[in-house]
Amino acid sequence: MIKVVGKIAVFCLLIGLVLIDQQGVAQISLGSDLSKINYEKPVEYIIGGVEVSGVEFLDKNVIIMLSEIEIGKRVKIPGDEITSAIRKLWDQGLFDNISITATSIKGNNIFLSINLKERPRLAKFSFEGIRKTEADDIREKINLTRGDVVTDHLIIRTKNIIQKFYSEKGFLNSEVSVVEKSEKKNDNFVDLVITIKKNKKVKIKEINIFGNEALNDDAVKSSMKETKARGVFRPLDSLGPLLV
Length: 244
Known about the structure:
By secondary structure, this protein is an alpha/beta fold. It is 22% helix and 32% strand. The protein contains five helices and eleven strands; from the N terminus they run βββββαβαβββααββα. The strands form three sheets. Strands 1-7-8-5-6 form a five-stranded mixed sheet. Strands 2-3-4 form a three-stranded antiparallel sheet, with no helix packed on it. A three-stranded mixed sheet has the order 9-11-10, with helices on one face.
């Protein structure tokens, strides 16, 4: 099972040399200026500018809009606004790493940088453990395309679709694993290797009917169509006229 690990970086104001004294006051060297931030007494600033780094596929203006730390907004540093901005970006499910740092402070204006590491995109995918005809059928169902963002949701959705596909064919104990492999030509792309182990079909040994008073047992069994003793167990098949 693939595990995609992401990190939310706590906001830190890092420019030049940072020294923290015993009173919890950070001294940040800003060229020839010196500013002090007391972590017990947040300071309110006006956002003078925002830049975005580390993105290749996403619109930087959209990222700033989603973070809600637009130019002209008043924020307290340290404060909830920066934490909230990181959380809003993290909730998009598009990044492996997020941090927000200050690039400079001029008077009451603070200039911020949103630093991101995008989650990888899909280059191609392949199957192992099944025949080509089965792979072709599954390929149409999972509907993966080059450029898709490889998220936890995409991996789980792919596995669920494949397991449902085999469950409907009587393979109730199928196993599916999805492994990422880095794309040699581009660090921002990965290949997915989907390994499928169908295991044995689940078959019905015997059908017992209890509580039936309105119909003949044979009529009930015949209405179950392909669900027969010694047949393949397909729990998702319709029960036809017995369903109201």
